[in-house]
Specification:
Blueprint: E1 8-11, E2 18-19, H1 21-34, H2 53-61, H3 65-81, E3 88-89, H4 93-102, E4 106-114, H5 115-124, E5 131-137, H6 146-156, E6 165-169, H7 172-180, E7 184-188, H8 195-201, E8 205-207, H9 210-219
Parallel strand pairs: 1-4, 1-6, 4-5, 6-7, 7-8
Antiparallel strand pairs: 2-3
Length: 224
């Protein structure tokens, strides 16, 4: 991947552009309380950041499909009113998006978060003008897997050559979703995945921070 400059940059949202820890974990806590499950430490719910919600409720709390659907509805009760704003933009992201745009690269969002929520978050942080297309999941549970979201973004845009495309994210779902669509991927370590997770998923490149990510995208080389 040395000296390679991509023309189409797909970004994950949670753990890549923003740190949604408080909003997501508080929403999960609210949903679990409906089932009389109490959580004292919000950090214990950080594994919910990244995967589709239904998968997380089933994997972490052994919910049935029906219970998971109820939990998601309760989650959205809190998230839509409060949790969506309990979110922080990673320092340097605004500058990175500006530089990519100035270098005539096209930027896209590919998130497992419902598309209306994703659009609202971009607008909240005044980032929407940077994005050529915003792709997310649907409220009915369709297109929740990251591979399907990435395919949706690719199919909905004028991207012709997949070798010009890269997916950037902090979890294995981003990396595996990219591989499923035959595009390169970059894993970031400032989010919620670790190096082992990203490497095992098959990331083409792993970067430590936003400065390193910016340098690689703009020059194709990581600074020494």
């Amino acid at each position: 991947m040395n000296n390679k400059r991509y023309q189409h940059i797909l970004f994950d949202l949670d753990g890549t552009l923003t740190d949604p820890m408080i909003g997501i974990t508080s929403s999960v806590k609210y949903a679990l309380s409906y089932f009389n499950i109490e959580v004292e430490d919000l950090r214990s719910l950080c594994p919910f950041i990244g995967p589709p919600l239904k998968t997380s409720f089933k994997d972490f709390y052994q919910f049935t499909d029906e219970q998971a659907d109820v939990a998601i509805a309760k989650y959205r009760e809190y998230f839509s009113k409060q949790g969506i704003f309990e979110n922080t933009l990673y320092q340097g992201i605004d500058e990175l998006l500006r530089l990519l745009t100035e270098n005539e690269m096209k930027i896209y969002l590919a998130t497992s978060k419902p598309q209306p929520f994703a659009q609202q978050i971009l607008e909240y942080f005044h980032l929407e003008s940077y994005f050529t297309f915003v792709g997310g999941s649907t409220f009915d549970g369709n297109r929740s897997e990251k591979a399907n979201v990435i395919q949706y973004v690719l199919d909905s845009t004028d991207i012709k050559t997949r070798s010009d495309v890269v997916m950037i994210g902090d979890r294995k779902y981003d990396i595996k979703g990219a591989k499923a669509n035959n595009i390169d991927s970059i894993g970031v370590l400032y989010g919620y995945g670790d190096e082992e997770e990203l490497a095992n998923a098959g990331a083409n490149k792993i970067v430590t921070d936003i400065k390193e990510l910016s340098s690689f995208l703009l020059t194709g080389n990581i600074p020494i």
